[in-house]
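Reviewer 2 asked us to include a model.

Predict the structure of this chain.
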Amino acid sequence: MKTSRQPLSRNRQAPAQRRDLPHDRVDRPLAAFARDYADGEAVPRHAHDRAQLLYATRGVMRIATDAAAFVVPPGHALWMPAAEPHRVGIEGPVAMRALFLRADAAAVGPSATTVLAVSPLLRELILAATREPLEWDEAGRGGHLAALILDEIARAPGLPFGVPEPRDPRLCRVAEGLRADPASPLRLEDWAEAAGASPRTLERLFLAETGMGFARWRQRLRLSEAAARLARGEPPARAAAAVGYASAPAFGAAFRAAFGITPGGAR
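Predicted model (structure tokens):
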């Protein structure tokens, strides 16, 4: 799979390139894929014929679909339905261990792109699957691993690491500004002039396009960015300050409410 160091493009007009991998065609319920990436690499917008479970044993993946942007720290995986266009950005050296699932096997997963918590058992199963041949023995060890993997995927809880992607150009100006500086204290009223719309219009558009108001969307963005920083080893207090939280207890409470773990646990 060729990679590029170009930043993740947000151009939704370009057709998604089809990645032709044997993992998309092998006659097995699932196929495991292993690839290591260097810091700063990026995989351009593409799609696969099969559903994927994208998991990294090390490093942080940023994966953008046309609808949302996802931060995937270690200990989590991204469930990606078949034919979903997406781009992948790499932060730090990443050891990706992915699964490609045939349509019948993919029925155990969510219907939409979702970040899943990976249990210790699922982690070891994924690693074991990468050591099996592409056409593993369905009546042997490979078949047993596949059955357990599908059961663990079905049980895996989803987590709100995704940040819905706005489409309106006025909202995109606000979103890009906050991605560049998650700690920005600017209110929606402050963004209005730069966006070219009234605060009321922006609030209405945020709700219509992302399913949440501006304040909630900004919090989701900040917590996702904090999760990426924690995964890179930053202390919780520094990660909190970098995304705009002046109070460590307030950050800890918000992070725990969103993700079910403490910032220290995420680190």
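The domain at 164-266 is CATH 1.10.10.60 (Arc Repressor Mutant, subunit A). The beta strands are 17-18, 30-37, 42-47, 51-65, 68-72, 76-80, 86-101, 114-117, 158-159, 162-164. We have added this to the supplementary material.
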